[in-house]
Amino acid sequence: MAHTLVRQHQHTPSLPAPVPAEPPARARDWAEIQERMLVPLYEAVYDRLGIGPGTRLLGLDCGAGLALLLAAARGAEVSGAERDAARLALARERLTAESAAVRSAGCAPEPPAAAEPYTMITAFTPPAARDLAEAAALAGRGSPVVLADWGPAERCASAGALRVAARLADPTAAAGCWRPSGRDDLDDLVRSAGLRPDGSGRVACPFGYADTASAVRGLLSTGYFDAAMTATDEAQVLKELTEAIHPYRRTDGTVWMPNVFRYVVARTR
């Protein structure tokens, strides 16, 4: 059975401070509505790199643990690091079914529990270059490090809704904002972290929701709207987000927002 570690980031001079915990309902919306939208991305990365028995995976900002669960189902030994306490609790709850070795203590990323280094690192939410470099140092030489982010804004239907968050947010806010991804952002991050580029890919990740209410809950759970909520008020954010979603509402009431995500593969030196 896959050995599973799920840790919470704790503040050290070389790591970002933990983010405030999401309300449990918001974290649950992420786990039950939004996180599954990225399954095509997770599966494409795992297929490309042949993840399976013998893989020792470290997932940075692992959210509610779905990507780790999919990797464990392929036979990988998985470890996760997550800064948000509410999402972390859900990840532990999810992964306990796969392994009784879920650990709660420690600073993440940490050395693997086994003597062997990690053989793969994923960061489906791009981290800071220094954090990425520190995590990469825990992997064996030549191990793949996968980074992912939004594709071009013109190929992401959700960009219109997310621009609401950016427009309403306090422009001085340092976190909780969304911005379009630049074509070379991930490649620049790879170079800044001292990694060796080794290819890239794009994956269609449509966001499909049962209705507008589910779409609103799912998008709010991303955290991109937090700064907007603080700068304005919840009613204003909900009104404008609902209006931005409306063009993607189909005749049966469902919401369908095609998106493309880009990932890059790098190698440790």
TrEMBL record:
Bias (Basic residues) ranges: 1-10
Keyword Methyltransferase: yes
Disordered as annotated region, ranges: 1-23
Name of the protein in question: SAM-dependent methyltransferase
SUPFAM superfamilies (UniProt xref): S-adenosyl-L-methionine-dependent methyltransferases (SSF53335)
Coiled-coil stretches noted in the UniProt entry, renumbered to this chain: none
Record InterPro entries: SAM-dependent_MTases_sf
GO biological process terms held by the UniProt record: methylation
Gene Ontology molecular-function annotations: methyltransferase activity
Alphabetic keyword roster: Methyltransferase, Transferase
Cited Gene3D superfamilies: Vaccinia Virus protein VP39 (3.40.50.150)
